[in-house]
C-alpha cells in the first residue's frame, strides 16, 4: 500500500474514527505559527506530531491568537523590548465554514474555526482546530478575547477558557465528530469542557463524564493554576452552568480550574515521577499517576544527527527505542555530526551578535523561559570563582523570553547582562534574542553542555534537556523533573546539588547548588572535555542511548494510549 496516497490521507481523516480530543491552550506546530509561549505549547505540538506518526486517532483543539506571542528584542542592558507579532492565519491555516455560538455576559458570541493538518510519517493526519472569536458578528469587546495568549486581565483569561472548553466541545460536534470517547485536558485551562459535557448529558451523573476525561497537570508553581472568584464567573459564564459549578465546587467557592479537572477526570497524571509525587501531596490525591514527558525525536534532532541516525539506526524516528543502539556509532562520526551542529550555532551567533565564538571551546547552553525559579543567573553567583575556573576554557550561550507581565523574569535577564558585562574580556557570553522553536533547536544541538538549575521542586519535567540528549549534548542539571530519571552520574551527564530525598523533596539549598555547580565544572567537566575526548564521546553516546530512547513523545503518547485513552496506535 502506498501509505502516503490521497486515499489513505482521506481515510485517516475520517471523523467517525476519531476517539481522542486533545485540548490545549497553546500548541507549537510550526516555527511560523506563533501560537505558543513555551514548554506547554512545545509539548502539545510534539504530542500531536507523535500521534500523527503513530496513527493514534487524535484531534487537537486550541485557541487562535490574533497576535502571536511577542517578539523579543533586548537593549544593551538586557531590558526586554516587546513588539507585537502580526501574522495572517490564512497563510498557514484553512478557515472552515463552521460556526458555533456561546454566551458570555448575556451576549451571544460567535466562534469560527481554522484547521491545520499535521501529516505523520506514513501520511496519517491529525487535524488541529483553532477557535477564533474575531468575527464581524461579534461585539468589539468579544473580538478582543483572543487577542493574545494568556493576555489581558483575569476576565479575558476566563473568556478564553470558556471559548476553548465550552466552544471546543460545541465545535467538535459541529464538525461532525461523533465518536470521541476521551477528552484530554492538557493543563487546567481546558477544564470548562467538562461543564459542556455535563450539559450535553442532561446533568445525569458525573461518572460518565469522568470516564471520558484525562487530565495532565503541568506545574507545581501556583501561578500555573487559574482561580476565579465565584461571583465573577457568575457574571460571565452562561447561567446554565452555574448549578454544575456549585455542585462540583461544593458551594459558591473559588472557581479553581485545577480542582474541576481533578474532580472530573478518571485518569490524572503529572509529567515526571517526581512531579506526580509533588502533585499527590499538593492536591491530596493519592491516585495521580506519572507519565514522563518527551520530545518529538525527528523535530529536535539536528540535520547532521538525522543523517547519522538514518545510517546507523534505521527507523529511529518511528521507533526511538532503537536509540539504544547508539553505542555502535563510530566515535569520529558522532564528533563530526556534533561539530557540524556546533558550527551552525556559532555561525548564527556571529550573524546575530557579531561575536565570533570558538569552535573548540567548551560551550555551555542555557535557554528557557526567563522565570525567577529557573535561576538563569545562578552561574554568576561568584564571578571571581567563575573566572578562576573558566577563563579561556568556557563560553556560554543564553536565550529566553520573560512573559510581558513577569517583572522578576525581566530582571533576571538584566542580571544575566550584568554578569556578561563584568566578565567581558574573560569569558565570552552571548544572549540571543527571541527564543523560539527554531532557535531552541539550534542551541540545544549546538552546545556541548546543557545547563539547568531550577529551584527544586518547580521543574515539573523540563524538555529542553531531552532535546540536548537527542543530539549527544550532555546535561548538567539540578535533580528535578525528568533529570531524576535520566541522570546516570558521569554516564549520561551530571547532577547539580544534592539528590532529592524525603527531606529536601520540596526545598533547595542555593549555596549547595552553587558550590556543586562550580566544583563539578572545575574538577570534572572542564578537565574531561579537554583531556579525555574518548570518554566525552562515550558519554555522548550513552546519553543518546539511555536518554533519547526513552524521553520522546512516541514513548510518551503510547503510555497515554495504553493507560489513559485505551486506544491502539495504527503503526508501531
Ligand atoms: C523545548 C522548549 C521549551 C521547554 O523547555 P524547558 O526545558 O521545559 O524549559 C520552551 N520553549 C521553547 C522555545 C522550547 O523549544
Written account of the structure:
By secondary structure, the protein is of the alpha/beta class. The chain contains 21 helices and 19 strands. It has a 9-stranded mixed beta sheet with strand order 5-6-7-2-1-8-9-12-13, sandwiched between helices. The chain has a 6-stranded parallel beta sheet with strand order 16-15-14-17-18-19, with helices on both faces. A two-stranded antiparallel ribbon has the order 3-4. Helix 17 (464-470) packs across helix 20. The mean pLDDT is 94. It binds pyridoxal-5'-phosphate (PLP).
Tally the helices: what do you get?
21
Gyration radius, in Å: 24 Å
Largest sheet: 9 strands, mixed
Q: Give the distinct bound molecules.
A: pyridoxal-5'-phosphate
Remind me, CATH topology of the largest domain?
Rossmann fold
Percent of residues in helices comes to 40-55%
Shape: globular
Question: How is this fold's topology laid out?
Answer:
Layout: H1 6-12, E1 20-24, H2 39-54, E2 58-63, E3 67-74, E4 80-86, H3 89-92, E5 94-104, E6 107-119, E7 125-132, H4 140-143, H5 154-175, E8 182-186, H6 193-200, H7 206-212, E9 213-216, E10 227-228, H8 230-236, H9 242-249, E11 255-256, H10 257-263, E12 267-270, H11 273-282, E13 289-290, H12 303-312, H13 331-353, E14 362-367, H14 383-390, E15 394-399, H15 407-422, E16 428-432, H16 437-446, E17 449-452, H17 464-470, E18 474-478, H18 483-486, E19 493-496, H19 510-531, H20 533-548, H21 553-565
Parallel strand pairs: 1-2, 1-8, 2-7, 8-9, 9-12, 12-13, 14-15, 14-17, 15-16, 17-18, 18-19
Antiparallel strand pairs: 3-4, 5-6, 6-7, 10-11
Helix pairs in contact: 2-21, 5-6, 12-13, 13-16, 14-19, 16-17, 17-20
Amino acid at each position: 500500500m502506498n501509505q502516503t496516497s490521497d486515499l489513505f490521507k482521506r481515510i485517516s481523516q475520517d471523523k467517525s474514527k476519531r476517539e481522542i480530543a486533545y485540548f490545549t491552550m497553546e500548541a507549537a506546530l510550526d516555527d511560523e505559527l506563533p501560537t505558543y509561549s513555551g514548554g506547554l505549547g512545545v509539548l502539545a505540538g510534539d504530542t500531536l506530531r507523535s500521534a500523527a506518526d503513530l496513527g493514534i486517532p487524535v484531534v487537537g483543539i486550541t485557541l487562535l491568537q490574533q497576535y502571536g506571542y511577542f517578539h523579543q528584542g533586548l537593549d544593551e542592558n538586557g531590558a526586554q523590548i516587546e513588539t507585537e507579532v502580526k501574522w495572517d492565519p490564512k497563510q498557514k491555516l484553512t478557515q472552515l465554514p463552521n460556526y458555533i455560538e456561546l454566551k458570555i455576559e448575556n451576549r451571544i458570541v460567535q466562534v469560527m474555526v481554522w484547521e491545520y493538518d499535521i501529516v505523520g510519517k506514513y501520511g496519517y493526519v491529525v487535524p488541529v482546530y483553532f477557535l477564533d472569536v474575531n468575527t464581524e458578528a461579534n461585539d468589539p469587546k468579544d473580538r478582543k478575547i483572543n487577542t493574545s495568549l494568556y493576555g489581558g486581565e483575569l476576565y479575558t483569561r476566563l473568556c478564553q477558557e470558556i471559548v476553548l472548553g465550552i466552544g471546543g466541545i460545541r465545535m467538535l460536534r459541529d464538525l461532525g465528530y461523533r465518536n470521541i470517547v476521551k477528552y484530554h485536558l492538557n493543563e487546567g485551562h481546558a477544564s470548562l469542557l467538562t461543564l459542556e459535557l455535563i450539559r450535553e448529558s442532561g446533568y445525569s451523573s458525573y461518572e460518565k463524564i469522568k470516564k471520558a476525561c484525562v487530565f495532565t497537570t503541568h506545574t507545581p508553581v501556583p501561578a500555573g493554576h487559574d482561580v476565579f472568584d465565584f461571583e465573577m464567573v457568575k457574571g460571565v459564564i452562561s447561567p446554565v452552568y452555574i448549578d454544575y459549578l456549585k455542585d462540583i465546587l461544593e458551594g459558591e467557592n473559588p472557581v479553581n480550574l485545577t480542582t474541576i479537572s481533578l474532580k472530573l477526570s478518571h485518569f490524572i497524571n503529572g509529567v515526571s515521577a517526581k512531579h506526580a509525587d509533588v502533585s499527590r501531596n499538593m492536591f491530596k490525591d493519592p491516585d495521580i499517576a506519572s507519565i514522563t514527558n518527551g520530545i518529538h525525536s525527528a523535530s529536535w534532532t539536528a540535520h547532521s544527527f538525522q543523517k547519522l541516525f538514518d545510517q546507523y539506526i534505521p527507523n529511529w524516528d518511528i521507533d526511538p527505542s532503537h536509540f539504544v543502539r547508539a553505542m555502535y556509532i563510530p566515535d569520529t562520526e558522532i564528533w563530526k555530526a556534533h561539530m557540524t551542529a556546533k558550527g551552525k550555532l556559532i555561525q548564527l551567533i556571529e550573524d546575530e551578535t557579531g561575536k565570533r565564538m570558538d569552535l573548540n571551546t567548551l560551550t555551555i547552553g542555557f535557554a528557557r523561559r526567563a522565570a525567577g525559579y529557573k535561576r538563569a543567573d545562578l552561574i554568576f553567583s561568584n564571578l571571581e570563582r567563575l573566572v578562576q575556573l573558566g577563563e579561556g576554557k568556557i563560553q556560554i550561550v543564553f536565550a529566553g523570553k520573560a512573559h510581558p507581565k513577569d517583572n522578576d523574569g525581566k530582571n533576571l535577564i538584566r542580571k544575566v547582562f550584568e554578569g556578561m558585562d563584568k566578565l567581558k574580556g574573560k569569558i565570552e557570553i552571548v544572549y540571543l534574542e527571541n527564543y523560539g522553536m527554531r532557535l531552541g533547536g539550534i542551541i540545544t544541538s549546538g552546545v556541548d553542555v546543557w545547563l539547568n538549575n531550577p529551584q527544586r521542586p518547580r521543574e515539573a519535567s523540563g524538555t529542553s534537556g531531552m532535546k540536548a540528549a537527542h543530539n549527544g549534548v550532555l546535561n548538567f542539571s539540578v535533580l528535578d523533573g525528568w533529570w531524576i530519571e535520566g541522570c546516570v552520574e558521569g554516564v549520561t551527564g551530571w547532577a547539580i546539588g544534592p539528590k532529592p530525598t524525603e527531606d529536601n523533596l520540596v526545598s533547595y539549598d542555593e549555596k549547595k547548588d552553587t558550590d556543586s555547580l562550580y566544583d563539578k565544572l572545575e574538577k570534572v567537566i572542564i578537565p574531561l572535555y579537554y583531556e579525555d575526548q574518548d570518554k566525552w564521546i562515550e558519554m555522548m553516546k550513552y546519553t543518546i542511548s539511555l536518554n533519547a530512547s526513552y524521553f520522546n513523545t512516541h514513548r510518551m503518547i503510547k503510555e497515554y494510549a495504553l493507560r489513559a485513552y485505551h486506544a491502539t496506535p495504527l503503526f508501531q
